[in-house]
Amino acid sequence: MTTALELVQQGHQVEIVARHLPGDIDIEYTSPFAGANWSSFAGPNDLEMQEWDKIGYRKLLELADNVPAASVVRRTYQMLNVKSEPWFKDFVEDYKILTDLPKGIEFGYEYTSVVISVPIYLHFLLQKLISSGVVIHRANLKHIKDAATHFTGGQVDVTVNCSGLLASKLGGVEDKNVFPIKGQVILSRNSCPTMISVAVPGAAKGESLYIFPRKEGGTLIGGSFWPNDWSPKVDKKLFKRTVARAKKYCPELFANGELDVVSVGCGLRPGRKGGARIEKETIPGVGKVVHNYGAAGAGYQNSHGMARKAAALVASSLRESKL
Fold it and tell me: What is the pTM of this model?
């Protein structure tokens, strides 16, 4: 939806063909389960992802400060038991190294970040698209060429492939580098004043703790990062471990007793070996295509930067068509 909005704002006629839309709940539709905070996954030499993250940070702070309907909010974010200072320490607001650390935590820092209430934000984006005249189609596509059959605006000049995890199965694409990364989260009515992420000492591989308070109250608590796990089932043992970790590192969550659980959910992040794919291609029987998928766990914070790059490739493809 962010890519579509970027294209509309640049003057393109856009229609969306989607298997899932905001309000849907499905293991392969990860967006409603996301923590949706800002914390860069980029390495010190990954300059392109760093640029996407910078764009996302500025845009999300702008929404937090000026667009209440987006349900994006500023929060102090504490990163505990990390190994070193991040590349963005001179870029983000209010960065500082923490000195008063919980027992067993050797190093940590904090800064001003944002967190998104995803059900509200997704509908916010959808309403912006509809208000901009974007037509939405529901369809479960088996092949990328079938997207064009739903287009009501005449000939399709460029097909933009934002199919996420489906890119591993979608005919004409079938990217074998795409794989699921399962995450499990708890939505509670309890509130924690600060965003917290902890590389928990002694935790099993792929497990950590993150606590993200929402603007409207309540908190999302995770989590797991399990590659190649397609299972939709909730892991009850992980649930218990996550609650115990939350109680240790954010006792304020339990000020009124036990955790008041709204739901426990699982989503499959769209991972990709080699990182996100944003590139143009000509596919026989389809025509010009711009791919934009494979953001793994960085979908929300990278969305604006990735959308800008995808839109630039669309513009490039259209210029080539006129030559």
Answer: 0.94
